[in-house]
Structure formats: structure tokens, C-alpha cells
Design a protein that fits this description.
By secondary structure, the protein is mainly alpha-helical. The protein has six helices and two strands, in the order βαααβααα. Strands 1-2 form a two-stranded antiparallel sheet. α4 runs antiparallel to α5.
């Protein structure tokens, strides 16, 4: 499982950040004559306020288990969803056959991409029978359940 480090930035946290910056006394930064001391004092103040307003959080990253999903398929699915919403909102007679045709073509593309991925898996496998049954079980929704014994 991989994790990403992320900051939550929204209107509320930005307002908190601006409020904390406005309440900070900047005398150390503006009253100094040595550039290095001024810069170091700024670096002590600014990150402290930044990280208190925008704390870092660990977020689970989604690992794509389906390597057959190409960026083009994702774009086409988004376009299909937009067409569906438009079809629901408007009773356009010419949009319905276009949507059905688009859906049919997209499902054929998805089927072909899955088939190519499965063929590639089976072809590059050392144990073709085991890999074939793994693909069949995955597509049919039957997975091996791990049996854990407790003592």
C-alpha cells in the first residue's frame, strides 16, 4: 500500500493562514540590517504558520489494478457520463441514438482492451492454465478466499 503526503487547501484554511499572517509581528524581518538574519527570521516565521494552517496528511493512493484502462478510455467514459447527464436534462431526439451508439462503441473498445490485456497475461505466463483460470475467476467475480487459522 502506498501513501501520498498531501495538504488540505481550501477557503477555510486559506482564511486561517491569512489571519495568522496578519497577527504575526514582522519586526524581526523589517527591523534588521543583515540580509541573512532577516531571511532566517522570515524562514522561522513563514513555514511555522504555513504548516499550522495547511497540515500535511497521509492519503492512500489508489493503485490501478486494471492496466487495460488507458487514458483514452477514461476520457471516453467521462464524455459518456456527460452525454448521459445531458440526455437526462434535455429531451433531445437526436441525442438518444448518438448516446446509444457511443455507448455501444465504448463497450466494444473496453471489451477489446480487456481481451488484449488478458491475452498478453496468458502469453507471457509460465503456467498458462493457472493464469487462464485466474483471469476467468477474476472476470466472473470469484476470488480465492484466504483461510486464516487462529490458534
Amino acid at each position: 500500500m502506498s501513501y501520498l503526503i498531501n495538504s488540505k487547501i481550501n477557503k477555510c484554511t486559506i482564511a486561517d493562514f491569512q489571519l495568522k499572517l496578519s497577527h504575526e509581528t514582522w519586526e524581526q524581518v523589517f527591523d534588521g540590517y543583515d540580509v541573512n538574519k532577516i531571511f532566517n527570521s522570515f524562514l522561522n516565521i513563514f513555514p511555522r504558520i504555513y504548516y499550522s494552517s495547511f497540515p500535511l496528511t497521509r492519503v492512500k493512493s489508489k493503485v490501478n489494478q486494471n492496466s487495460w484502462i488507458a487514458p483514452g478510455i477514461i476520457t471516453s467514459c467521462k464524455h459518456k457520463r456527460e452525454l448521459c447527464k445531458e440526455l437526462q436534462n434535455n429531451n433531445n431526439a437526436s441525442l438518444a441514438p448518438y448516446y446509444r451508439g457511443y455507448s455501444k462503441i465504448l463497450s466494444m473498445v473496453i471489451r477489446k482492451a480487456k481481451r488484449m490485456e488478458h491475452d498478453k497475461l496468458i502469453l507471457n505466463s509460465h503456467n498458462k492454465v493457472k493464469t487462464t483460470w485466474g483471469v476467468i475467476n477474476k472476470e466472473s467475480g470469484r476470488y480465492k478466499k484466504e483461510v486464516k487459522y487462529k490458534l
